[in-house]
């Protein structure tokens, strides 16, 4: 049975994080795993948000089945059982990747060189985009002010 909404204290939060780590540790195909979102903050949450960077290429249908399978496995690994909202970082928009890297908590890192390279690439891409967005914003504000 899944809880739709939950609230946990710090001890239970850390226990659940440990359960998630143990579950992910057994999966060699998962290179990086991050916990992000409302579960990390104090107060209520609706689900547990997890972002993964995985090895290998998959067609869209296989990727869907693969992702749902991991989410289901993770839900079975934790007690009490909460819904897992799983997203893959591999082809996600850089804005999402940056938010996960910036605010998330690392659950698993199969290889530190891979993690460092991934995070550095995400930050560099985001800063390039941020500069572009800021330039566009300034131009639009200047036009509005005319």
Automatic annotation (TrEMBL):
Which GO terms label this protein's molecular function in UniProt? transferase activity
Give the transmembrane ranges: none
User: What keywords would UniProt list here?
Assistant: Transferase
Source superkingdom: Archaea
**Family matches, as InterPro entries:** NT_sf, Polbeta, TA_antitoxin_MntA
Q: Does the keyword Transferase apply?
A: yes
Q: Where is the Polymerase beta nucleotidyltransferase domain?
A: 20-113
Which PANTHER family does UniProt cross-reference here? NUCLEOTIDYLTRANSFERASE
Protein known as: Putative nucleotidyltransferases
Organism of derivation = Methanoculleus chikugoensis
